[in-house]
């Protein structure tokens, strides 16, 4: 299926590795030009080189910087001639016990995982409306639906973003202009973030990381962790011309781990 995004410009945040890179790879494979951002310049340049090799017909631009800062956002936006597709993503806040978190810790989590995506949406959505095409995908977390105790900072900040997006996505001015906003909620994917969570959870359960990882897999009907490429493929579908009637949704990708009907 042709996703209809060849020649579009995509800004993908935190895309040097993990889920962000998976999204960038899938979009580039469909012919979209991509601007990728991340804080680590070396890993980012390596990711950009791999993208160019895999998709020689597209333009790939790498902008090293902290997307959670005004300067980082300005640099990323300046590198993108127009943002037709925005994939919001940022490293998750630290794990731990909520008793350990002070106000500054909470503000940092909210700034990175709620306010930064909102600022990027604000900076790009009107241009999308004017051009009659826009796809915004926010990478949040399966913990929005099924909170994980050691991820309290993430639970709170990402749930705030989810509520914000639910309202904005349903504004007729956006939806009628073929501009959609959706959230992708990853479960357990093989990323650095998962490794950190497993380490924290294993310590709390007095188990080894490998033992706890096997426990996690046993609780997933798929009996495995997801791969970033799988996540990226779903992201690309949401960004396609075929997904114009899908907006304001929270799409859970977790191998069937969430036990609820809704």
Order of helices and strands: EHEHEHEHEHHEHHHE
Structural class: alpha/beta
Range of strand content = 5-15%
Q: Looking at the structure, what is the overall shape?
A: globular
| Mean pLDDT reading | 95
Spatial sequence of strands, sheet with the most strands: 3-2-1-4-5-6-7
Largest sheet: 7 strands, parallel
List low-pLDDT spans: none
Query: Fraction of residues in helices?
Result: 40-55%
What is the radius of gyration computed over CA atoms, rounded to a whole number of angstroms? 18 Å
Amino- and carboxy-terminal Cα gap: 29 Å
Given the structure, what is the number of helices?
9
Q: How are the SSEs placed, and which strands pair?
A:
Blueprint lengths: L8 E4 L5 H12 L3 E6 L2 H14 L5 E5 L5 H9 L6 E4 L14 H29 L2 E6 L12 H17 L3 H4 L3 E8 L5 H13 L4 H10 L9 H11 L11 E4 L9
Parallel strand pairs: 1-2, 1-4, 2-3, 4-5, 5-6, 6-7
Helix pairs in contact: 1-9, 4-5, 7-8
Notable features of this structure?
262 residues, 45% helix, 7 strands, single chain, seven-stranded parallel beta sheet, alpha/beta
Tell me what the structure shows.
This protein has 262 residues and is α/β, with parallel strands linked by helices. It is 45% helix and 14% strand. It has 9 helices and 7 strands, in the order βαβαβαβαβααβαααβ. The protein has helices spanning 18-29, 41-54, 70-78, 103-131, 152-168, 172-175, 192-204, 209-218, 228-238, and strands at residues 9-12, 33-38, 60-64, 85-88, 134-139, 179-186, 250-253. The chain has a 7-stranded parallel β-sheet, with helices on both faces. β4, α4 (103-131) and β5 form a beta-alpha-beta unit. α1 packs across α9 (228-238). 45% of the residues are buried. The mean pLDDT is 95.
């Amino acid at each position: 299926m042709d996703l209809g995004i060849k020649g579009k410009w995509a800004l993908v945040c935190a895309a040097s590795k993990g889920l962000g890179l998976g999204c960038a790879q899938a979009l580039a494979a469909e012919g979209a030009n991509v601007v990728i951002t991340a804080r680590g310049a070396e890993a980012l340049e390596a990711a950009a080189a791999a993208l160019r090799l895999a998709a020689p017909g597209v333009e790939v631009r790498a902008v090293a910087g902290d997307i959670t800062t005004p300067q980082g956002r300005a640099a990323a936006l300046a590198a993108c001639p127009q943002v037709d597709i925005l994939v919001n993503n940022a490293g998750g806040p630290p794990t731990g016990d909520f008793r350990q978190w002070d106000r500054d810790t909470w503000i940092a989590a909210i700034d990175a995982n709620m306010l930064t995506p909102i600022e990027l949406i604000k900076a790009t959505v009107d241009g999308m409306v004017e051009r009659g095409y826009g796809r915004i995908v926010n990478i949040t977390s399966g913990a929005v639906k099924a909170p994980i105790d050691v991820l309290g900072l993430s639970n709170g900040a990402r749930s705030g973003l989810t509520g914000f997006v639910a309202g904005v996505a349903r504004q007729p001015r956006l939806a009628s202009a073929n501009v959609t906003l959706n959230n992708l909620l990853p479960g357990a994917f093989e990323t650095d973030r998962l490794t950190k969570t497993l380490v924290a959870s294993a310590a709390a359960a007095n188990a080894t990381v490998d033992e706890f990882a096997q426990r996690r897999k046993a609780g997933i009907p798929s009996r495995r962790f997801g791969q970033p490429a799988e996540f990226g493929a779903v992201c690309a579908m949401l960004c396609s011309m075929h997904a114009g009637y899908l907006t304001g949704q929270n799409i859970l990708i977790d191998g069937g781990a969430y036990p609820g009907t809704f």
